[in-house]
Amino acid sequence: MHKKFLTTLLAIILIGGIAFTGVRLVLAETSGSAPESGTTSKIKTIYTSLSGLSHGSDAAGSWGDWGTYWNRLRSAAEFIPSGDATTADVKNDVTYTSNSRTGSTGTYPNPTNCATMLYPDNHASATPENNCNVAWEATSPAVAGDDMRDPRTGLTWSQPLKNEGNVVTFAINGYSPWTWIADGAYFTVTSASATAGATYTNNGQTFTVLQTLAAGTTLYTSGTGAAATSGTLTKSNAVAGDATITFSAVVQNNILVGGKTAAQLCSERGNGWRLPTQNEFMQAWIDGAYYNLVAAATNNWSSTMATANTYFYSLLSGGTTASIFNYQGNYARCVR
Question: Of 27, 278, 291, 326, which residue is the least packed, with the fewest Cβ within 10 Å?
Answer without folding.
Answer: 27
